[in-house]
Amino acid sequence: MSDTLLGLGSKPGWKILDPWNGSGTTSSIADQFGCQVFGYDINPVATMVASARLARLDDIEHSSGLASELLNVASRTTVKISTADPLLSWLDVRTTRSFRAVEQSILSLLGTKGGVCVNAQTQTPPPFASFFLLCLIMAAKQFTIIKNNSNPTWVTPEKAGKAKLGALECSFLEMVAKCTLDKEGDVRFCDAVNHSSNVVALSDSKELPLADDSIDAVITSPPYCTRIDYFRATLFELAALGICPSSDQYRALRSKAMGTNLVRGVAPESPHNLAGEIVSVLDKIKGHQSKASSTYYYKHYKQYFDDAGASLDEIIRVLKPGGTAILVVQSSYYKDIPINLGDLFVAMGRHKGLDGRVVLKVPVKRVLASINPHARRHAGTRIYTEDVVALKKEF
């Protein structure tokens, strides 16, 4: 990432965008370079983690004493737990009540905007509040009892975990101390050059809240075309934020995400919508003899590339003339059909008038697709690469 910023010729004050910011690698490193960062994601857990990574070291160094005060405030807070609280699937009533009391103290003291506590389900808390919330969630997760699944991204509770009286609070203090040390060890640049106007927020990559021609460079890694359900992997963290997996809110988030397993419907066919190389891949999937190839799987892949195209349209809109978008993607397979995602993003970019090429291909041995036991049978015959794609907007 640092090499990418240097290669682009970034300067302090540059506006850097990551529309799939995830845990915030782009926003964190670009911030350390003195850039103004705009990091967006559709998952509120991801934006909270990314926001926490932007917490200033000067603040973090005082976190231990503040953590104790947050617990003092929580001990004087009376919290009523709804029977519908999604944390009750993961933790017993007493531990859930303790969690909500500490959460409330964090948001009331550190997470207010205009005197009103932010709703972490729909708004990203400020960096220092996100730091403490993340420590609290990681502390609480130690008391969960999670089912053993063959798919490590499919996280479900076996039963409600129980913590001894005061154990969650002690774990919280220990986690704050650990994360403080991690933050101190991770600082590579002087905080003095950092921007105070960085933006880490919830947003769909297909609808970016940015002005036209306002971004100097885009550095991002779009969701891979692997049918991995990333929302299931953060199910406990979403429950900690109050989002229930059976709720309309959860389903809406999953449905909007690029690469989701949920098929929203397929856009009408048009020879002008997608690059010819993508149409060719979709035709192969549609014509494959495997079960559901012409129905669910074709619709899934068509939806993925429709979303990728709409997102790329937004990147083009907000990128300054002469600006470059760097995308890191990974190849995959549908059955025996290779999905060379780097080449397909280049084709998509050229189809939309961008100057595009794959600037680096790195062989990858371990891929997320290999978690499927059926896919592992073909591991020896398949070649996977991680590709760095450069797409330049003409002047």
Q: How does this model look, in words?
A:
There is one protein chain. This protein is 42% helix and 17% strand. It has a domain at 41-199. Strands 7-2-1-8-9-13-12 form a seven-stranded mixed beta sheet. The two termini are 25 Å apart. The protein has 395 residues and is an alpha/beta fold. The protein has 15 helices and 13 strands. A hairpin with a 2-residue loop joins strand 3 (112-113) and strand 4. Residues 188-192 have low confidence and may be disordered. It is globular, with a radius of gyration of 22 Å. Helix 7 crosses helix 8 (167-186).
Distance between the termini: 25 Å
Give the uncertain stretches in residue-range form: 188-192
Give the number of helices: 15
Mean pLDDT: 91
SSE string, helix = H, strand = E? Answer: HEHEHHHHEEHEEHEEHHHHHEEEHEHE
Order of neighbouring strands in the sheet with most strands: 7-2-1-8-9-13-12
Structural class: alpha/beta
Rg value: 22 Å
Question: Which geometry do the CA atoms define?
Answer: globular
- In helices, the fraction of residues equals 40-55%
- How many individual β-strands? 13
Biggest beta sheet attributes? 7 strands, mixed
* Residues in β-strands, percent: 15-25%
